[in-house]
């Protein structure tokens, strides 16, 4: 039986890092996959050649569509909000400045149109704490309630595994001075709280292509960034690091599930 998976993200490239393997796996199995982003990512970090003309948001939405094509996504939706940025005053149309009811209504409309079986969002801390990510959790939960979506999965990473991977990467890549690994030691989810662990090894090429589609996010004026480091990891190691994806369903009971659609009629 086919189902519909809607993945909800804050910015273009978040899908590549957190849910792209699951999306590709679902699409390859004949399920309908819909990718929704709240913002255009226009305040993201990137080299001047991508942002100095004010066109970073449009470029990142184009990158999102290339990522979606690599994953077999059937539909891409931008809810129409601007990137709020990490701190300081958000743009007037920034996601965090919008009414939660208004934003949830826009997402609920997509969920209704698609008759979604599963929605993915983020945990209450927004993973690593970006305010747009926290807002995705809030808006996603409210939209699912409005639309009566059967299952909401919070995309996450086991924090001990993440920290171990970052330490391994640091042996071949020098992170920027602003990088603080202690942030990640407090981020995402403890392994014991993971409810869904999805094996995406067979779809790792699609996941890597989705990451590579976000070319702007691998650049900076003083070098490159974490995404670029991930893409330089040799394939056997890359496959090991990125071959699984993780979710938390607060309503889940029983052993860790291996399928986001498990138990759905």
TrEMBL record:
Domain of life: Bacteria
Keyword Disulfide bond set for record: no
BP GO terms, sorted: glycoside metabolic process
Pfam assignment, any one: PIG-L
InterPro entries linked: GlcNAc_PI_deacetylase-related, LmbE-like_dom_sf
PANTHER family: N-ACETYLGLUCOSAMINYL-PHOSPHATIDYLINOSITOL DE-N-ACETYLASE, N-ACETYLGLUCOSAMINYL-PHOSPHATIDYLINOSITOL DE-N-ACETYLASE-RELATED
GO molecular function annotations of the record: hydrolase activity, acting on carbon-nitrogen (but not peptide) bonds, in linear amides
Assigned keywords, A-Z: Zinc
Glycosyltransferase in keyword set: no
Protein name in UniProt: LmbE family N-acetylglucosaminyl deacetylase
């Amino acid at each position: 039986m086919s189902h519909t998976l809607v993945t909800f993200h804050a910015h273009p490239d978040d899908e590549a890092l957190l849910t792209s393997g699951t999306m590709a796996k679902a699409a390859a199995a004949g399920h309908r996959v819909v990718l929704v982003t709240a913002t255009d990512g226009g305040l993201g970090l990137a080299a001047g050649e991508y942002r100095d003309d004010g066109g970073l948001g449009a470029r990142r939405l184009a990158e999102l569509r290339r990522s979606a094509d690599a994953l077999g996504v059937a539909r891409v939706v931008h809810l129409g909000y601007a990137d709020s940025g990490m701190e300081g005053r958000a743009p007037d149309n920034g996601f965090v400045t919008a009414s939660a009811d208004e934003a949830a209504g826009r997402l609920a409309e997509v969920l209704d149109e698609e008759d979604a079986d599963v929605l993915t969002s983020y945990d209450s801390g927004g993973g690593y704490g970006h305010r747009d990510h926290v807002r995705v959790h809030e808006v996603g939960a409210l939209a699912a309630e409005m639309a009566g979506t059967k299952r909401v999965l919070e995309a996450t990473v086991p924090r001990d595994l993440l920290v171990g991977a970052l330490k391994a990467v640091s042996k071949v890549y020098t992170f920027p001075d602003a990088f603080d690994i202690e942030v990640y030691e407090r981020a995402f989810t403890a392994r014991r709280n993971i409810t869904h662990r999805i094996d995406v090894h067979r779809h790792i090429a699609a996941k890597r292509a989705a990451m590579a589609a976000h070319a702007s996010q691998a650049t900076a004026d003083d070098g490159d960034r974490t995404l670029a480091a991930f893409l330089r990891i040799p394939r056997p190691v890359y496959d090991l690091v990125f071959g699984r994806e993780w979710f938390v369903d607060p309503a889940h009971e029983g052993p860790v599930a291996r399928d986001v659609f498990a138990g759905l009629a």
